[in-house]
Amino acid sequence: MEWFYGKFDEQSGRPGSTFIEGSFDEQSRTATLKTIRVESALRGSGLADSLLEMFVTAARMRGMQRIRGVFSPDEGCEDRARRFYERNGFRIGSDERPFGLGGTYTFETVEYDLTDPQQGQTPTS
Ligand SMILES: CC(C)(COP(=O)(O)OP(=O)(O)OC[C@H]1O[C@@H](n2cnc3c(N)ncnc32)[C@H](O)[C@@H]1OP(=O)(O)O)[C@@H](O)C(=O)NCCC(=O)NCCS
Fold it and tell me: Which segments does the entry list as coiled coil (predicted)?
Protein backbone atom coordinates (compact mmCIF):
# COMPACT_ATOMS: atom_id res chain seq x y z
CA MET A 1 0.00 0.00 0.00
CA GLU A 2 1.35 3.40 -1.01
CA TRP A 3 0.01 6.65 0.42
CA PHE A 4 -0.55 9.77 -1.65
CA TYR A 5 -0.77 13.29 -0.34
CA GLY A 6 -1.01 16.41 -2.50
CA LYS A 7 -1.49 19.86 -1.11
CA PHE A 8 -1.81 23.50 -2.03
CA ASP A 9 -1.13 26.01 0.71
CA GLU A 10 0.90 28.82 -0.81
CA GLN A 11 -1.87 31.40 -0.68
CA SER A 12 -3.58 30.40 2.51
CA GLY A 13 -0.44 30.11 4.59
CA ARG A 14 -2.28 27.39 6.46
CA PRO A 15 -0.57 24.14 5.61
CA GLY A 16 -2.85 21.29 4.81
CA SER A 17 -6.11 23.22 4.43
CA THR A 18 -6.31 22.46 0.71
CA PHE A 19 -5.31 18.92 -0.03
CA ILE A 20 -6.10 15.51 -1.44
CA GLU A 21 -5.25 12.28 0.30
CA GLY A 22 -5.50 8.70 -0.84
CA SER A 23 -3.69 5.45 -1.35
CA PHE A 24 -2.80 2.93 -4.01
CA ASP A 25 -3.09 -0.80 -3.51
CA GLU A 26 -0.94 -2.63 -6.02
CA GLN A 27 -2.49 -6.03 -5.39
CA SER A 28 -6.11 -5.09 -6.04
CA ARG A 29 -5.11 -2.27 -8.41
CA THR A 30 -7.48 -0.06 -6.52
CA ALA A 31 -6.81 3.53 -5.56
CA THR A 32 -8.67 4.82 -2.54
CA LEU A 33 -9.62 8.48 -2.43
CA LYS A 34 -9.73 9.28 1.26
CA THR A 35 -10.29 13.03 1.39
CA ILE A 36 -10.37 16.06 -0.85
CA ARG A 37 -10.72 19.49 0.68
CA VAL A 38 -10.38 23.02 -0.62
CA GLU A 39 -10.52 25.77 1.98
CA SER A 40 -13.70 27.82 1.61
CA ALA A 41 -12.08 31.03 0.34
CA LEU A 42 -10.53 29.14 -2.57
CA ARG A 43 -13.57 27.15 -3.66
CA GLY A 44 -14.83 27.59 -7.20
CA SER A 45 -11.32 28.43 -8.41
CA GLY A 46 -10.63 25.17 -10.22
CA LEU A 47 -8.14 24.05 -7.56
CA ALA A 48 -10.28 21.04 -6.64
CA ASP A 49 -10.23 19.93 -10.29
CA SER A 50 -6.42 20.22 -10.37
CA LEU A 51 -5.99 18.23 -7.16
CA LEU A 52 -8.31 15.50 -8.41
CA GLU A 53 -6.59 15.40 -11.79
CA MET A 54 -3.25 14.98 -10.03
CA PHE A 55 -4.61 11.99 -8.13
CA VAL A 56 -6.18 10.41 -11.24
CA THR A 57 -2.91 10.82 -13.14
CA ALA A 58 -0.88 9.32 -10.30
CA ALA A 59 -3.30 6.37 -10.14
CA ARG A 60 -2.98 5.78 -13.89
CA MET A 61 0.83 5.95 -13.70
CA ARG A 62 0.80 3.23 -11.04
CA GLY A 63 -1.39 0.96 -13.14
CA MET A 64 -4.51 1.29 -10.97
CA GLN A 65 -7.75 0.12 -12.58
CA ARG A 66 -10.22 1.98 -10.44
CA ILE A 67 -10.56 4.72 -7.87
CA ARG A 68 -12.99 4.33 -5.00
CA GLY A 69 -13.94 6.50 -2.11
CA VAL A 70 -16.74 7.21 0.31
CA PHE A 71 -18.95 10.16 -0.60
CA SER A 72 -19.05 12.06 2.69
CA PRO A 73 -19.12 15.80 2.04
CA ASP A 74 -19.22 18.42 4.76
CA GLU A 75 -22.68 19.52 5.81
CA GLY A 76 -24.05 22.04 3.31
CA CYS A 77 -21.55 20.92 0.69
CA GLU A 78 -23.49 17.92 -0.63
CA ASP A 79 -24.77 19.34 -3.94
CA ARG A 80 -21.52 21.10 -4.71
CA ALA A 81 -19.46 17.97 -4.02
CA ARG A 82 -21.83 15.85 -6.11
CA ARG A 83 -21.57 18.23 -9.09
CA PHE A 84 -17.81 18.40 -8.65
CA TYR A 85 -17.35 14.62 -8.84
CA GLU A 86 -19.79 14.15 -11.69
CA ARG A 87 -18.23 16.96 -13.70
CA ASN A 88 -14.90 15.18 -13.29
CA GLY A 89 -16.19 11.87 -14.63
CA PHE A 90 -16.82 10.13 -11.29
CA ARG A 91 -19.92 8.06 -10.68
CA ILE A 92 -21.83 8.28 -7.42
CA GLY A 93 -22.78 4.78 -6.32
CA SER A 94 -23.67 3.01 -3.11
CA ASP A 95 -22.29 0.21 -0.97
CA GLU A 96 -23.33 -1.76 2.07
CA ARG A 97 -21.43 -2.83 5.18
CA PRO A 98 -22.41 -5.12 8.05
CA PHE A 99 -23.47 -3.17 11.12
CA GLY A 100 -24.29 -4.30 14.64
CA LEU A 101 -25.91 -7.68 15.12
CA GLY A 102 -26.90 -8.80 11.66
CA GLY A 103 -27.76 -5.34 10.38
CA THR A 104 -26.31 -3.38 7.49
CA TYR A 105 -25.84 0.23 6.68
CA THR A 106 -25.72 1.76 3.23
CA PHE A 107 -23.46 4.61 2.23
CA GLU A 108 -22.68 6.54 -0.94
CA THR A 109 -19.46 6.02 -2.85
CA VAL A 110 -17.51 7.78 -5.55
CA GLU A 111 -16.08 5.61 -8.30
CA TYR A 112 -13.90 6.11 -11.33
CA ASP A 113 -13.13 3.32 -13.79
CA LEU A 114 -9.62 3.86 -15.13
CA THR A 115 -10.01 1.05 -17.69
CA ASP A 116 -12.97 2.72 -19.39
CA PRO A 117 -11.74 4.93 -22.26
CA GLN A 118 -14.96 6.97 -22.00
CA GLN A 119 -14.27 8.00 -18.42
CA GLY A 120 -12.47 11.21 -17.69
CA GLN A 121 -13.25 12.67 -21.08
CA THR A 122 -14.73 16.13 -21.14
CA PRO A 123 -18.45 15.71 -21.75
CA THR A 124 -19.70 17.20 -25.00
CA SER A 125 -23.06 18.88 -25.14
C1 LIG B 1 -15.83 19.24 -2.52
C2 LIG B 1 -14.85 20.38 -2.80
C3 LIG B 1 -13.41 19.83 -2.75
C4 LIG B 1 -15.12 20.88 -4.23
O5 LIG B 1 -14.36 22.02 -4.50
P6 LIG B 1 -15.09 23.36 -5.02
O7 LIG B 1 -14.04 24.33 -5.36
O8 LIG B 1 -16.10 23.75 -4.00
O9 LIG B 1 -15.87 22.79 -6.26
P10 LIG B 1 -15.84 23.20 -7.76
O11 LIG B 1 -14.43 23.17 -8.28
O12 LIG B 1 -16.83 22.29 -8.40
O13 LIG B 1 -16.32 24.67 -7.76
C14 LIG B 1 -17.62 25.05 -7.35
C15 LIG B 1 -18.25 25.88 -8.41
O16 LIG B 1 -17.34 26.79 -8.99
C17 LIG B 1 -17.28 26.60 -10.41
N18 LIG B 1 -15.88 26.65 -10.85
C19 LIG B 1 -14.96 25.65 -10.79
N20 LIG B 1 -13.80 26.08 -11.31
C21 LIG B 1 -14.00 27.38 -11.70
C22 LIG B 1 -13.16 28.36 -12.29
N23 LIG B 1 -11.89 28.12 -12.60
N24 LIG B 1 -13.71 29.56 -12.50
C25 LIG B 1 -14.99 29.82 -12.20
N26 LIG B 1 -15.82 28.94 -11.64
C27 LIG B 1 -15.32 27.73 -11.39
C28 LIG B 1 -17.81 25.22 -10.67
O29 LIG B 1 -18.46 25.16 -11.95
C30 LIG B 1 -18.78 25.04 -9.54
O31 LIG B 1 -20.05 25.57 -9.85
P32 LIG B 1 -21.35 24.71 -9.54
O33 LIG B 1 -21.25 24.23 -8.11
O34 LIG B 1 -22.46 25.67 -9.76
O35 LIG B 1 -21.35 23.57 -10.51
C36 LIG B 1 -14.99 21.55 -1.79
O37 LIG B 1 -16.31 22.06 -1.89
C38 LIG B 1 -14.68 21.17 -0.35
O39 LIG B 1 -13.53 21.18 0.08
N40 LIG B 1 -15.71 20.83 0.46
C41 LIG B 1 -15.53 20.47 1.86
C42 LIG B 1 -14.92 19.08 2.01
C43 LIG B 1 -15.75 18.05 1.31
O44 LIG B 1 -16.97 18.00 1.45
N45 LIG B 1 -15.06 17.18 0.56
C46 LIG B 1 -15.70 16.13 -0.20
C47 LIG B 1 -15.65 14.83 0.53
S48 LIG B 1 -16.62 13.58 -0.32
Answer: none
Residues forming beta bridges with residue 33, ordered by sequence position: 22, 69
Nearest-angstrom CA–CA distance, 30 and 21: 14
Q: Domain segments of the chain: what residues?
A: 2-113
Provide the whole-model pTM: 0.86
- How much distance in Å is there from the Cα of 38 to the middle of ligand 1? 8
81 lines ligand 1 (CB under 6 A): yes
Q: What is the CATH number of domain 2-113?
A: 3.40.630.30
Beta carbons of 80 and 26 less than 8 angstroms apart: no
Contacts of 51 (CB under 8 A, 6+ apart): 6, 8, 18, 19, 20, 36, 38
